[in-house]
Automatic annotation (TrEMBL):
GO biological process: amino acid transport
GO MF annotation, one: transmembrane transporter activity
Protein name: ABC transporter, permease protein (Cluster 3, basic aa/glutamine/opines)
Transmembrane segments: 300-320, 360-380, 463-484
Entry keywords, A to Z: Amino-acid transport, Cell membrane, Membrane, Signal, Transmembrane, Transmembrane helix, Transport
Principal localisation: membrane
Amino acid sequence: MFPVLLAALLLLAGGGVARAENALEQVRERGELVIGTDATYPPFESKVGGRLEGFDIDLGNQIGKELGVKVRWVNSAWDGIFPALRTGKFDLVMSGVTITDERKQNLLFSRPYFLSGQTLARRRGDRRIGSADDLPGKIVCVQQETTGQTAAEKRGLPPESIRKFETLPEALLAVRNRQGDVAVGDLPALRDLIRKGYPELEVIGGVFVQENVGIVADPRSGDLIRGVDAALQRILDDGRYGRMYALWLGEPLPAADVARLNGLAAVGGGGVDSGSAFTIRWDLLQNALPLLLRGAVTTLYITGLTLLIGTPLGLLVALARLSGFRPLSTAAAFYVEVIRGTPLLLQIFVIYFVLPAVGISLPAFVAAVLALTLNAAAYIGEIFRAGIQSIDTGQMEAARALGMDYGAAMRWVILPQTVRRVLPPLTNEAVALLKDSSLVSVIALTELTRVGRELSTNSGSPITIYLAVAVLYLAMTLPLTYLVRRLEDRWQPISRPRAKAVAAKP
């Protein structure tokens, strides 16, 4: 079944429309340059109030001015920024993107416009870490799908020692909460974030990986990148670049950096002729599938453990809500309303990042299962409560008349009928839980969606990866719905014989 589903869905993506080669002309015709950015990376880009500001923002606006068009910025999550570029949502991406050989295979880069590098941040006074040579044996926190993650991986660290977060501030927060030992990130970004909100941390050592930052375009936008390169050179020559650098970096532009920037030629990229953004890369899929399957196993493990704990806990919540003991029913109702009234993502964030502030620090896996269990128990409790209340009251009265106490009547009469009735909504909850487990990636757990986003961002071929992820989720949910359907048929003692009788009629 799985290979058939995979082939069917992937073939749907085979006939996309390629972007036109005259991208710069199209930009000028509509009078607007659309630039995507992840505004969580000061001093390059951040959101203050309702506006975006930072070095990249000012530089991008000046590039638009040189091209004779207005600039419209789109704030996008980092893990989706390159897929959005490839599917035509943006003309360019400016988000402190480091130029790497891997990215150049599927993306087109401008000439470098900023010289950067990876460095370390630790808790103040933590003498265990003095340089990158001290990383082995430590828990290293990074922003996912960045060159900070790549730099940590290239030090030979095992995967379990690298914790990947959605944003760099979350990585720093984990270090501050002692859920990690050190953070790896771009030197300007680490300095700015620590200065603004993490006084407990400090940057140590110098840059241990030199990097160049560039502007990204779709591989079919060569004329647009050539226009951007020319605009960058004019901005650098007339002093505007130096003024923006001093404003956002807090120091004058070093003369050596000016010389290096002037000496760096256009980078290019887009080595793989991927044609349409919807082209499927079967070679990439072959290499990615083992990693995706491991992520799927993690997803199933988390979901199964959550259901194993959350289902009986939900039943207890339902019984508590139906209890005649007012304090217990009130407490259960309060718990349900709090859980249902707040987003699951916020609950995960509070359990993992906020509880350490009061002395409760949980491992990422434990925090994920706890958050999902508490959330699922509230919804499962309401399912059970509705199922119990749907049973005719005469059932309980008859059981009591036969001499059963309340507990025995509930156990032997009410609950068996309830389970049959609530099986379909419980199945829906299980399927929803399996998909909601993707949210635990915010606390550095590598489940299926996280693996897919990493592969998508690093490969530059989002359609291939995301369709494979979708097929894997489908392959995990279909057996569950099939099993429940069989159980429903098996547990219908009245309708089953009737259906057989109807089928047997000539």
